[in-house]
Amino acid sequence: MKNSRQALIQLAILVALGAAVLLTILLPRQAEGRKAVEPLEISVVLREADSTLWATARLGMEQAAGELGAELRVLTLAQANDAQGQLSVVRREAEQKADALVVVPADPVELGLALIQGELGCPVVSLESAVDGAPQTVAPDNGALGRALAQAALDDGCRGPVLLANASPDSTGVTQRVRGARQALEEAGLEVRLEEEGQLEGLLDGEWAAVMVFEPALTERALALKEGMGLDVPLYGAGVTANVAAGLERGTVTAAAAWSDFAAGYLAVEGAAALARGTQRQADPLPFFILRGEDIYEPKYQKLLFPVS
């Protein structure tokens, strides 16, 4: 009887010791697990003053943030395309210990210099334009997009002078679109005029066979001017916001180059979170397509353009 009691006591001691060993192994792992899921702080800095142009992209950003344990801070500029103002915002966010930044650069060269010189101290994912020193860019093939938009005009029988307007000449992504379109049009023998200030007022009613713009903000402006002035010049744009989709439906916008803003936002935050956690993955160029009014309600385009509608 005494031996049985001693055996039970020894067994209890062994069980307690085993439990203690397991706890010493598991507790650090649990602590590491808690640390791994601590929320990241990701700041998104746009180049516009109006964030509604990025509404669908922001939905993608928020979904990625929710899935990946990140907190988003989305910031706009007091004045659109203010490169120095944007750089000040970017520096401030880095100083406030953002884990990563997503930036739509107003001036990729200036931002690239800040990155190369080590001013920021946190990884940056660039949207729309490649930036030196940014390990990841989320954008379509901008040159190919411009050529495709020009080809759409050529397919429509455009044979006269074409106005190309660029309100963001410091944005290398937008400028690559302009360059691609200009090359395609000039190779086809068309006369091209380039307006690099984005001043459509007083120009849109010229003797143009077509007008082309290469970013959502300017597409919306050109659409409003065309309808307000009652013009019938063919208008080709880039980016499909709700206003541009309505313009396509009405026929005021002849065609627009489009991509999934939701996917762009999602991939940008996904890339920023991965970089903040020590991994890196370069995204493939975003697929794009040329959209016309008759295509707007096709399910495949609805899903890409308005994924939560």
Description:
This protein is of the alpha/beta class. The protein contains 10 helices and 11 strands. The strands form 2 sheets. A 6-stranded mixed β-sheet has the order 7-6-8-9-10-11, with helices on both faces. It has a 5-stranded parallel β-sheet with strand order 2-1-3-4-5, sandwiched between helices. Helix 2 (55-68) packs parallel to helix 9. The protein starts with a helix and ends with a helix.
Name some characteristics of this structure.
Rossmann fold; 309 residues; single chain; 2 domains; six-stranded mixed beta sheet; alpha/beta; 16% strand; globular; 10 helices
What composes the largest sheet? 6 strands, mixed
Query: Strands of the biggest beta sheet: in what spatial order?
Result: 7-6-8-9-10-11
| Total discrete domains | 2
Strand content: 15-25%
Helix-strand layout with pairing:
Elements lengths: L1 H35 L3 E6 L9 H14 L1 E6 L7 H13 L4 E4 L4 H9 L7 E4 L8 E3 L3 H14 L6 E4 L6 H16 L4 E4 L14 E4 L2 H14 L5 E4 L3 H9 L4 E5 L1 H16 L11 E4 L7 H7 L4
Parallel strand pairs: 1-2, 1-3, 3-4, 4-5, 6-7, 6-8, 8-9, 9-10
Antiparallel strand pairs: 10-11
Helix pairs in contact: 2-9, 5-6
Quick overview of this protein structure:
With 309 residues, this protein is of the alpha/beta class. It has two domains: 40-138 and 261-286, Response regulator (Rossmann fold, 3-Layer(aba) Sandwich); 142-259, Response regulator (Rossmann fold, 3-Layer(aba) Sandwich).
